Amino acid sequence: MDGSDERRAADGGAEEPPARERPELATRILRAVLAYPAALFAGIGDLTLMALRMLGWMVRPPYRLRLLLQSMAFIGVGSLFIITLTALTSGMVLALQGVYSMRVFNAEGAVGGAVAMSLTREISPVFTALMVTARASSAIATELGTMRVTDQIDALATMGVNPIQYLVVPRVLAGAMMTPVLCLLFTFIGMVGCYFVAVIGLGVDPGQFMDKVGRWIGPADFRQSVIKATVFGAMTILIACQQGYSAKGGAAGVGQATTRAVVIGSVLVMITDYFLTAAML
Amino acid sequence: MTEPQDPIHIRVEDVHKSYGENHVLRGVDLLIHRGKTNVVIGGSGAGKTVLLRQLIALERPDRGRILLDGQDVVSLGEVQLNRIRRRFGMVFQASALFDSMTVFENVAFPLREHTRLPGREIRKRVAAKLEVLGLGGTENRMPGEMSGGMRKRAAVARALILEPEILIYDEPTAGLDPIASRNVDRLINDTAEHFRGTSVVISHDMNTTFGVGHYVALLHEGRIRASGRPAEIAASTDPVVRRFLAASGVTPVITHAG
Q: Are residues B83 and B169 in the same domain?
């Protein structure tokens, strides 16, 4: 007791309330509850700040084409297998569900159109973004996080190379450019899977199938698809970069950054999807 | 404390830095002498690394000035800072080599980023620098395949490749055994002789301090407690300095006397 009083007097803070006293229960509950929105707003702030810094450094030379191509290969080419696999199974299962439920109304011929519409507008962009998040975001958060905790990011800065420009800009650009490509591929492969199950497996008339596909989807659907995928791709990779970039606390900190990158990325893809859909309908 | 005889390269004036409630630097005044090896020594948590981050403009101090050749760097914008940072070469505690690149790519990195030299010239310069540091022929090794001492040498090669004015070592002997530590001391001395620039060594190792320093400053509780020639520090009557010397358990062996 005496010691703490002495220290406070020494700090010249005789008027200040005691620093180490346990606060009221109500205050503690309020603080605990408020911690969540506070962390949320802080997170949004950090992300916005990173986005602004990234945009600022994006337009400034030097433009590192080689790094951009490397990131495009990693995010795009590297995701081909997982995209093919998920697209094929999605198309197939949608065909299965579609044919059986539409058969009730004798309308199984429309399954091609229905699947095409749900793929282009919703399933392709969202699933592609989730796959990019699972595969590329996690790897990027781990890579940048490791670079952060081993001083490699500081080393870049001390060598007169801006780390945001060198590490974040090419990755986010590649995410924005490759996710829509993957998304279109997802739709195409999904339709192939759907055709196989519906036409070859369940005997839907191929003419009717193709006719409905052509009639039900148009350029507007693909526009929606591409816009969504671009936004999701840029967003999820930006989150991964931001989490990795601000990692701290050794290996455990890198692990946390990776988990957060995947969780926040996935959740934001779903939330953003709702608002983008609402805006574009 | 005697008047410094060597010209001043960096002048740190009343620098403060806090992280939240934690007031780490509480008014640091420090002179870095041109062409000499300047050691900043201090215990864990004294703020050594924080001071270093301000020095090389990785962070901005909350208050105070840092004058590099008389120019205040605290108020500079990000683009100008990038230019300023090129005048520093930095050897990080754990070397901080890019682990996705070979030794050659690591050392060539600053050249590729900041010069338009042809590939042949870059290869020549990197090979020469590696040779000087006793790393000839390691160009194609990955940092992960090398010992800590070799990584440190590669980090020095990378820091020196653009011929900076100031070379900074962060805790160069942390985590090394005594023999490896003395080898690093020798590396610092040889490098200083070879490159003729200003060296700054951040350390808590008394052997290193007296083995490499022309000037020594003791950082204690966020302020410079004592500074001067190594002999002056060794003979200091300041209780904090005495305690620090006694705790390290070494009789100072001073390499660079007055």
A: yes
